[in-house]
């Protein structure tokens, strides 16, 4: 009896337990059926998500052009290779769609991908062993050219497929790179999906500053599919169209920028300076026509970069005597300047508590000279006396602020850094007058100088001309000259221009090295001391920042340029004399300004007999290419005639003035590919543009190989692959 009671009791317990479990499970099922939710997750939405697949429609990043429409940055199509290793992908197919012969595939791919056969075999086998659907091939399998893709496709290897991608390309290499900057694929978080994806983003320069405009907006296609990734009969397809990024046209001019880049490279190679900065502007508008720095970098391969910053806008330093033009402008505007008044040069000490100011010839000076001559000789004493005795230090500070030396120019480039007006103690107020202590950037100086070149009106510098719609090319935003201040009057500006003229062309001028052949230049030299980290300033004839700010023609400046070279290595000239700090600065200034003014068709203001002999281009279109070639070669030009017959287009136009040995390219009615081996990249791209070829470049420097053989007839949209090598590897340099 006792045993039966225990049995019945335990049976009752189990019945209650099982009933409880049953009711709990039944209740849970009924709840799920009624609400279609588990732990707050909608089963319907979850199932819908599992059935739905989506493909991104990436927006094309906008292009960057110069002011003439030459492409400086664009998205170039590349290909990523991958291999399907899941054999179920071939189910039902007549031919295998996955990698079936692993060893054969690895052997054939190895030479084309420049990979070891064992590495490819290892990747494929690892994917198979781990039941992966597909595998990729790392860096070697990305950024493949169309030509390489086609070579691999010709092997007819099952399971080897390609995905089209975009890579940002900069066809001119190290060209305005710190203006343009670069963009690269970066991991970006999708806020809606809480996932990450790869997206092209600007890192430096215009690519960074205008990233939002350039990026556009990605689209997508979403539809429902079965487990084999096939669309359902009712796929509920959703399409959101992508919006391509806007195109940006810069104010820089490709030809003047090329002149600048070439001269900077020559100076960098010869003098090995710590830094070089240069900027060319139109003082009538504020447009930046060219800008460059050294060290620079190639945005196609931004590795081992010495200097990411654009020093023209991001690196303030003590300017030196270029500051004096603003000191004299303040004195003239204030009505306290008498240019013929004499003062004692050499040394100046307002009181015993102030360290004496000395002129740059060791404090010896030149005796009693006029303030006009003091400017011509770049006298520190004259500048100090003007601030201390004529203008007044408080009033002078007002002029410094009127010239915006205390604020950003707001040029449309990233990472602008302003200098600092060091103006707390009497000694600092005196040294600021001749550019010591107080710091500023080259772009700040150029902005202030527009007031001198432009009748007292100071203009905001800008480098973006317009932004256009990528489909219609209609401008969505255009820049115009913007007057940001009038620190001096027109009358004062004209007086300062005369002083700048004398500082280059006068009897005692410190800027004689900057005279041009065809144009009269005005400007001011600068020799700025470099602070020593241990205190004081560095010593030695190389330990300076040598600079020049000049404009021409000086009677009505059309072009203005600033150049600075920091710590160049100065040796001896051929005549045995010592090189001076002005030599590398003058080389850059004279080459760019002389040729730039001629290129812009600015009328020379010097006598014809004093000018460089430029060659004027005659009418080319419609003329016999054979006759023109002989005629132009006799004038000292290099000429390439692309085909025979009448000329239909050229890289120059009637009336253009070019220098001897310039390269003229003429396209004829029936063009045939010339040999471009040894050509510079820029000349090769000019030819490609004239022929409207689809061009792909590999490497940097000069042309080593060309995919279209010389003598082959060419037509628009033909593919041209160009392999380049650096100049030091090239046997016959241009």
TrEMBL record:
<dbReference type="InterPro" id="IPR012338">
    <property type="entry name" value="Beta-lactam/transpept-like"/>
</dbReference>
<comment type="similarity">
    <text>Belongs to the transpeptidase family.</text>
</comment>
<feature type="transmembrane region" description="Helical">
    <location>
        <begin position="12"/>
        <end position="31"/>
    </location>
</feature>
<dbReference type="Pfam" id="PF03717">
    <property type="entry name" value="PBP_dimer"/>
</dbReference>
<protein>
    <recommendedName>
        <fullName>serine-type D-Ala-D-Ala carboxypeptidase</fullName>
        <ecNumber>3.4.16.4</ecNumber>
    </recommendedName>
</protein>
<dbReference type="GO" id="GO:0009252">
    <property type="term" value="P:peptidoglycan biosynthetic process"/>
</dbReference>
<dbReference type="InterPro" id="IPR050515">
    <property type="entry name" value="Beta-lactam/transpept"/>
</dbReference>
<dbReference type="GO" id="GO:0071555">
    <property type="term" value="P:cell wall organization"/>
</dbReference>
<dbReference type="InterPro" id="IPR005543">
    <property type="entry name" value="PASTA_dom"/>
</dbReference>
<feature type="domain" description="PASTA">
    <location>
        <begin position="611"/>
        <end position="670"/>
    </location>
</feature>
<dbReference type="GO" id="GO:0005886">
    <property type="term" value="C:plasma membrane"/>
</dbReference>
<dbReference type="InterPro" id="IPR005311">
    <property type="entry name" value="PBP_dimer"/>
</dbReference>
<keyword id="KW-0472">Membrane</keyword>
<dbReference type="InterPro" id="IPR036138">
    <property type="entry name" value="PBP_dimer_sf"/>
</dbReference>
<dbReference type="GO" id="GO:0009002">
    <property type="term" value="F:serine-type D-Ala-D-Ala carboxypeptidase activity"/>
</dbReference>
<dbReference type="Pfam" id="PF03793">
    <property type="entry name" value="PASTA"/>
</dbReference>
<comment type="pathway">
    <text>Cell wall biogenesis; peptidoglycan biosynthesis.</text>
</comment>
<feature type="domain" description="PASTA">
    <location>
        <begin position="671"/>
        <end position="726"/>
    </location>
</feature>
<dbReference type="InterPro" id="IPR001460">
    <property type="entry name" value="PCN-bd_Tpept"/>
</dbReference>
<dbReference type="GO" id="GO:0008658">
    <property type="term" value="F:penicillin binding"/>
</dbReference>
<keyword id="KW-1133">Transmembrane helix</keyword>
<dbReference type="Pfam" id="PF00905">
    <property type="entry name" value="Transpeptidase"/>
</dbReference>
<keyword id="KW-0812">Transmembrane</keyword>
């Amino acid at each position: 009896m006792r045993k039966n009671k225990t049995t019945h009791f335990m049976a009752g317990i189990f019945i209650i337990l099982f009933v409880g479990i049953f009711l709990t499970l039944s209740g849970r099922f009924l709840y799920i059926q009624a609400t279609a939710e588990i732990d707050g997750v909608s089963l319907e939405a979850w199932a819908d998500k599992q059935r739905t697949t989506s493909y991104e429609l990436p927006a094309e990043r906008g292009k960057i052009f110069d002011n003439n429409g030459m492409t400086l940055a664009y998205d170039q199509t590349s290909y990523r290779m991958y291999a399907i290793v899941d054999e179920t992908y071939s189910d039902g197919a007549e031919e295998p769609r996955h990698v079936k012969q692993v060893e054969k595939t690895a052997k054939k791919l190895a030479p084309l991908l420049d990979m070891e056969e064992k590495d490819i075999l290892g990747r494929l086998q690892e994917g198979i062993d781990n039941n992966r659907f597909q595998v990729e091939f790392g860096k070697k399998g990305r950024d493949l050219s169309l030509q390489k893709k086609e070579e691999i496709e010709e092997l007819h290897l099952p399971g080897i497929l390609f995905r089209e991608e975009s890579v940002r390309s900069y066809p001119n290499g190290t060209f305005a790179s710190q203006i343009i900057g670069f963009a690269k694929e970066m991991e970006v978080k999708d806020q809606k999906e809480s996932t990450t994806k790869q997206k092209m983003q600007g890192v430096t320069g215009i690519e960074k500053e205008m990233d939002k405009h350039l990026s556009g907006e990605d689209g997508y296609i979403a539809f429902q599919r079965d487990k084999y990734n096939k669309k359902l009969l009712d796929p509920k397809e959703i399409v959101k169209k992508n919006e391509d990024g806007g195109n940006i046209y810069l104010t820089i001019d490709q030809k003047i920028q090329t002149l600048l880049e070439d001269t900077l490279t020559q100076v960098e190679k010869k003098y090995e300076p710590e830094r070089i900065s240069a900027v060319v502007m139109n003082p009538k508008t504020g447009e930046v026509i060219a800008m460059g720095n050294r060290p620079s970098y190639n945005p196609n391969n931004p590795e081992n970069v010495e200097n990411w910053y654009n020093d023209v806008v991001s690196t303030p330093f003590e300017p030196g005597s270029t500051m004096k033009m603003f000191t004299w402008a303040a004195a003239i505007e204030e009505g306290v300047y008498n240019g013929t008044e004499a003062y004692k040069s050499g040394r100046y000490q307002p009181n015993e508590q102030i360290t004496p100011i000395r002129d740059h010839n060791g404090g010896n000076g030149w005796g009693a000279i006029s303030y006009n001559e003091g400017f011509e000789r770049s006298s520190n004493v004259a500048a100090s006396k003007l601030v201390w005795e004529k203008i007044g230090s408080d009033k002078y500070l007002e002029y410094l602020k009127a010239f915006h030396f205390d604020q950003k120019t707001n040029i449309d480039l990233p990472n602008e850094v302003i200098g600092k007006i060091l103006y707390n103690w009497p000694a600092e107020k005196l040294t600021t007058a001749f550019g010591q202590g107080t710091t500023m950037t080259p772009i700040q100086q150029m902005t202030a100088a527009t007031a001198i070149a432009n009748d007292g009106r100071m203009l905001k510098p800008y480098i973006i001309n317009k932004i256009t719609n990528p489909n219609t090319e209609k401008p969505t935003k255009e820049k115009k000259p913007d007057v940001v201040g009038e620190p001096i009057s027109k009358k004062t500006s004209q007086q300062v221009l005369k002083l700048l003229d004398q500082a280059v062309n006068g009897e005692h001028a410190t800027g004689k090295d900057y005279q041009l052949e065809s144009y009269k230049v005005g400007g001011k030299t600068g020799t700025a001391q470099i602070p020593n980290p241990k205190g004081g300033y560095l010593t030695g004839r190389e330990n300076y920042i040598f600079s020049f700010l000049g404009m021409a023609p000086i009677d009505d400046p059309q072009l203005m340029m600033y150049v600075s070279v920091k710590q160049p290595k100065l040796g001896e000239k051929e005549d045995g004399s010592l090189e001076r700090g002005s030599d590398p600065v003058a080389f850059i200034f004279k080459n760019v300004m002389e040729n730039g003014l001629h290129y812009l068709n600015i009328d020379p203001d010097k006598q014809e007999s004093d000018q460089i002999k430029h060659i004027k281009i005659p009418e080319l279109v419609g003329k016999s290419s054979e006759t023109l070639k002989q005629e132009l070669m006799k004038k000292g030009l290099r000429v390439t005639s692309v085909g025979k017959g009448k000329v239909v287009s050229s890289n120059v136009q009637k009336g253009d003035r070019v220098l001897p040995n310039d390269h003229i390219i003429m396209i004829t009615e029936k063009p045939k590919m010339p040999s471009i081996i040894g050509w510079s990249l820029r000349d090769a791209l000019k030819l490609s543009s004239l022929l409207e070829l689809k061009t792909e470049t590999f490497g940097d420097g000069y042309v080593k190989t060309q995919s279209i053989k010389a003598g082959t007839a060419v037509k628009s949209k033909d593919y041209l692959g160009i392999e380049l090598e650096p100049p030091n590897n090239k046997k016959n340099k241009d």
